[in-house]
Amino acid sequence: MTEQPYTTADLLAEAARQHKAATEDPDFPGIGEQMEGHKIPSRGDFQWDQLNRDDFDTAQFAIDDLLGKAADVSRWAIDLGADALEPEEHQFTLSAGERPIIRVHFGFAPGLSDEARAAFVEGLGAAAAREMSLALEENPEPTIGSEAAAHVLFQERLGGWPASTFASKLLDLWTSADTGNAEHLADAFPEYAAAIALLKSGQPGIEQLRAIADGT
Questions:
Q1: What's the predicted TM-score (pTM) here?
Q2: Measured between alpha carbons, how far is 174 from 146 in angstroms, rounded to an integer?
């Protein structure tokens, strides 16, 4: 019997190449066609094609720009499917000030519970943050970015905007944490710790957070 003239890795690589090719150089008119009949997530049942022409065109150009800038995750997508793993919204991000420098996304086996997924992400995020801090051998005063400020404000219904699932669960956990665990969270997530401390300082701190969130 003749030996198979290619490997599984060859199949994965070719599938990833074709996946990438299918997403490159998107057809601009096709973007508008695909928007038609689909809801705008933040507006309930309101659809893209119910926008006025100027707003629709602006959105179409913005989507075309985002598609052109999309990172090549074709091999990741192919490998996840081959391993029967599900990508999902859990993620954590390490930032330098307001600039993300590392972002980790996750794929989980379908049977893994939401609690197990959240616990893994939180634990890995905390460990990564500690290791990053040790590697840099420095502990600068944390800079509060606009997202952290907005997330902490939103958590207390004082403005801002909602965080990702992970960050929301993290802030919920922080709310109920005892002193020791709150200190561990502060070590792992100093930006959120600084924002929470500012919030607890009273109205001037809240106004400062609002200014940070608004970029002013």
A1: 0.51
A2: 19
Report the alpha-carbon distance of residue 143 to residue 209 in Å, rounded.
Answer: 12
Secondary structure of residue 44 in the 3-state scheme: coil
Spatial separation of the C-alpha atoms in residues 162 and 145, rounded to whole Å: 14
Q: Looking at the DSSP assignment, which residues form a beta bridge with residue 107?
A: 87
d(CA 207, CA 149): 10
Contacts of 68 (CB under 8 A, 6+ apart): 26
DSSP state, residue 112? S
Which residue is associated with the tokens 């090719």? 21
* Residue environment code for 57-83, b if the CB has 16+ CB neighbours within 10 A, otherwise e: eebbeebbeeeeeeeebbeebbeeeee
Q: Which two tokens mark 199?
A: 């919030």
pLDDT digit string (tens) for 28-50? 888 899 899 999 989 899 999 99
- Please name the residue that has the structure tokens 């096709």: 30
- Cβ-based burial of 160 (10 A; exposed 0-12, middle 13-18, buried ≥19): buried
Tell me: the pLDDT tens digits for 131-174? 766 665 555 567 899 999 999 999 999 999 998 888 888 898 88
**CA max distance for the chain:** 78
30 and 23 Cβ atoms separated by less than 8 Å: no
Structural tokens at position 78: 């192919």
